[in-house]
Design goal:
Elements (H helix, E strand, L loop, with lengths): L2 E2 L6 E2 L38 H19 L4 H17 L5 H34 L5
Antiparallel strand pairs: 1-2
Helix pairs in contact: 1-2, 1-3, 2-3
The chain binds zinc ion.
Length: about 130
């Protein structure tokens, strides 16, 4: 049972998968089905380093600690969290939420710190002021 090329009409020898004349694949040839389309979707996830995550986590933890302790380390955690956010944008999305939380907490901690400094400053000024009321 002879096959004919659907492109040029040439008779194709039994067993050959391509037309001798124009090179187009023979109709009903199994070659077309062999193209692996389900293969390359394997995730290359494991190669992504944990660096982004650890930066975001570190920023988050330092920001929490500096919020509780009212420490100037909030500056460090703010920087760590911003770097972590940038890194998480580049790579996987992991750690992005943590980085944003770290930035927010750092800003709150810094605002608290500034508030406390202001209160102390007002306190110091009021001490300086008191001699005038003698
Ligand atoms: Zn042909």
């Amino acid at each position: 049972m002879a096959k004919f090329c659907k492109n040029c009409g040439l008779e194709i020898k039994e067993g050959s998968l391509y037309c001798e004349k124009c090179g187009s694949p023979v109709d009903s040839a199994p070659v077309v089905n062999q193209v692996p389309t389900t293969y390359p979707s394997q995730p290359t996830y494991q190669g992504v380093p944990n660096k982004t995550n650890s930066l975001a986590i570190a920023g988050f933890i330092v920001s929490l600690v500096s919020l509780v302790c009212c420490s100037p380390a909030a500056v460090i955690s703010l920087i760590l969290s911003i770097i972590g956010l940038n890194e998480s944008k580049k790579c996987a999305n992991e750690g992005k939420g943590l980085a944003i939380a770290g930035i927010v907490i750092s800003v709150i901690a810094l605002l608290f710190l500034i508030l406390i400094i202001c209160i102390y400053a007002i306190g110091i000024f009021s001490i300086y002021d008191t001699p005038y009321y003698y």
